[in-house]
Design goal:
174 residues; mainly alpha; 2 strands; 79% helix
Length: 174
């Protein structure tokens, strides 16, 4: 017996809280069934002997009793089983949705990583070019500054000596 199952009546194997509903349903179905069997064997099969009629009624009552017990048990217990099935389906749908969500997240991350990688490489190329141009420009400016300083020193030395200085200043074209 599972710890979660409510206690059952041993003869009926019906949960205790459903016993009243089961008994009422069973009594109702049995009464209707027995009334039908009696009516059928007395009114419809009126040509049978008394022995056959009584035997038919008892056979019908036993059949109605067994069928009623089974029908009522299934009716009462099916409600519980339906709840169990509904809970199982609900949990299955939640697991399925969680799995789909995880797959979508993984796919989105992979796509984002690929796009980010591609975009990062493109941005890196642009940034590399910009940085390279800036560094190259700084090197040229530094070299040009050295050349201009040296040219200016030569010009000033020639001026102090009173010599003619006709050397053009350095430019980027050289």
């Amino acid at each position: 017996m599972n710890v979660q199952d409510p206690p059952r009546q041993p003869i009926w194997s019906v949960p205790s809280e459903w016993l009243a509903a089961y008994v009422i349903l069973f009594d109702t179905v049995c009464t209707i069934g027995v009334a039908y069997v009696i009516w059928y064997h007395i009114a419809v099969r009126s040509g049978d002997s008394v022995h056959d009629t009584i035997l038919g009624i008892f056979t019908g009552i036993v059949t109605v009793g067994i069928a009623s017990a089974l029908l009522c048990y299934l009716t009462v217990d099916l409600g519980k089983n339906t709840m169990v099935l509904g809970t199982y389906l609900e949990n299955w749908l939640k697991r399925r949705e969680a799995r789909r969500l995880a797959e979508a997240i993984a796919e989105g991350l992979a796509r984002g990583h690929a796009e980010g990688h591609t975009e990062g490489r493109a941005e890196g190329r642009v940034e590399g070019r910009v940085k390279g141009h800036a560094e190259g420009r700084a090197e040229v400016i530094a070299e040009l500054s050295v050349l201009i300083r040296e040219w200016n020193e030569r010009r000033l030395a020639a001026e102090r000596k009173g010599e003619k200085f006709d050397e053009p200043p350095p430019s980027l074209d050289e």
